[in-house]
Every structure is written in structure tokens, then in C-alpha cells.
Amino acid sequence: MIYRRKTYRILPEKYEEFNRFFHQYLLPNQRKHGAKLVGRWVTENRDEIVAIWEYQDMRHYEEIEEKIRRDDLHSQAQQRRQELGELVIESRQDFMTATGTYHGARRGKP
Prior knowledge:
alpha+beta
């Protein structure tokens, strides 16, 4: 498995709008094509949102991304994002793999 960490720096006053946009366009399109959302978090001051997605491997991710870009919902999302104006100041993503099985730390042992 690989995990994609997608980080959005947003304007705090646009948090609700971005959340609606995510749930209306991004999440349904990702799920429709096989992406699995592990979780999504926001900082206390609502200026950064992090989403973790799970994929079988990099090929799986690339296949899903290709399908997403060809989907009508992607075009609709691009159009809606222009209408909403600046929602995202910057975004970035990186990929991670598990370091190994975690059995819980015991006192004095890593």
C-alpha cells in the first residue's frame, strides 16, 4: 500500500466553502474511481487541511487519477472552483509507505 498526503493551505474564512467543494466534487469523484480516503484533518485555526488517501501502489494511483481527469465531475469542479474565486492558497502532495507493523509502544521500548 501507498498513501498520498494532500495538503491544502486555505484562507480560514473560506473553510466552509472549501469543505462544501470537497464533499460535492472532490470526494465523490475520487471514491467513484476507487480511491480510499483514510482521513481528513484541519488545523485549529482552519488554515490547513490534510487528507490521506490509500492506494494499492503507484500504478493504482495513476489509473485512478487518469479516470478522474476524464470524468465530467472533474470538469464541473474546475468550473466551480473558478466561480468561487481563491479557495486554496497553495496545495502540495507527497507519497508515503508504512514503516512496518506497529504493535504499540511499551514503556521504555520504542
